[in-house]
Amino acid sequence: MVLDLIVAAVTIVIALLVTIYPLLAYKRKVWSIKPTLSQLQPRPQPLANQNEFLEGLCGCMSNPNICLSAYFCWVCRGVDTQVTAGVVARDDAMKQALLQACCSCIYIPCMHPCKRAAVRGELGGSPNWTCMDLLVSWYCFACVLCQEAREVDKAANAETRFATCALTQYGSQQPIGQSIQVHP
Fold it and tell me: Most buried residue among 17, 39, 62, 81 by CB atoms closer than 10 A?
């Protein structure tokens, strides 16, 4: 009995560490420095007068980097998209990520369709959620994350590289920012 409790406690601690480490890396390397759409001038509005995203729902492999991050670290990728779009404030990114990670059975079916509509609204499209938002969030969640991420990253011209959390220009390997040269 006591051994079972110890094993359960150790398992919970390991699960928390495995969840929190990527979130801290994203917070430090991405959420705190990636430009948001509201910071860009002129503000991009790629979905002006559109009711849907321009990127296809099943176009995951058009950007394998985003596809990998959506499948293997969906919380980080989702919050990255929401922070870049301006739906979630930078200061609230970690709270939002923990909410999504710990309450995913409630977040995905109930809250994500509203966040999806808010992301679309920040891109200039319709900010109202639809039944289609609800259905695709329920049945194609990873594809939905990829679609939103491709649209937002393309509008911001900044993409987060999977595994390294490095920021690059959308669709390239070019890092954002100036190189630092150290002279001996």
Answer: 81
